[in-house]
Amino acid sequence: MKTQISKKVTFTILSISLLTVMAGAAMAPALGTIREHFSSSSDILIQFVVSLPALFIIITNLWFSYICRFFKTKTIAVVGLLLYVTSGSVAFFADNMVLLLILRSLLGISVGLIMPLSTGLLSFYFPPKEQAKLMGLAGAMSQMGGVIATMLAGLLANIAWNYAFLVYLLGLIALTLVLAYLPNDRITASGNISIKSLSKFHPSVTGMLFVMVIFFIFPTNFAIISSQTTNLSSDEITIIMVGLDLVAVFMGLLFGKIMNVMPKIMKYFAPLLFMFGYICYAYGVSSAYLIVGSLLIGMANGIAIPYLNTIASIKGGKDAATTVMPLISASLYLGQFISPIIVNPLSKALFNQNDISSPYKIGIMICILFLIQTFLTRNYQSLPPRNNK
Known about the structure:
This protein has 16 helices and no strands. With 389 residues, it is mainly α.
């Protein structure tokens, strides 16, 4: 019976992971139709539909340990998921940009509540020897959620601009599972977010910031650059982008096995794969290079996130959900938020204005910094041995 309950709890936590990446990215395919509907609004306000949730996710994450002092896990998850479904789907009725952005802010708060739980509860309920596999599964579920949500939002947006927001009704699945199976434990222990905890966990927190800054060069530039440098159609470009996410899902499923076989060199996989991927993008002369580059970047993203989550959760122990995981989550969304703010000005400053592949070259430079940070700050930390009994 205990194994059966553990599987239900595991699946419930993983179902939360399915939702976390959908906060902003799911609306990307609908931005064109949203812009047409709100034609009197500025471009920056339209872009906030995608980027604004990240800001409120960060703010909520930083208060997460204090929230855990007053509420138990099930309560936090239920409130977060109710707010997620409500604020996400009610935007269907929002015919005012201010109201729409308020709802997007509330969506960010909801993800800020459930994101630390999606990984922190794995370290709370399961021993370290199981966490690599589970973090890989959580990463795979998150990537799969992005694939499903992006495709559904794109299809729904073809009906009308506001139909895309109905994709957030998927949160009802996780809400049902949480109500049925998630234990209502209190996860607050001795740890909380502080300068001391940031100092202790800075390799993983900084690493996640690097990963997101590097990765988000891809979704913000790939379609635009590829349409200008190749003969690929928009449908073919979309297939490559979705394929990258599917590669990340596959790597997440394999992560636990890879981590156990090659734990000492795993830390170098992500920066090197990212770097070679962007080299293919920046200097490749055919569509084949784009496909190879996308394969490498998908592999990097599928490894990087579960690796950083695994190492951080093992180091954080039972307190991970209230110490390092909110910091990791905040760093993840901060990286998404600042990536274009960093990359675009540097591209213009360091390269010729006519060099449309310059964002990829900036990506290569940031990958080198990520590799140096990895070498200097992340000592080898093995996983506990498996119990072969």
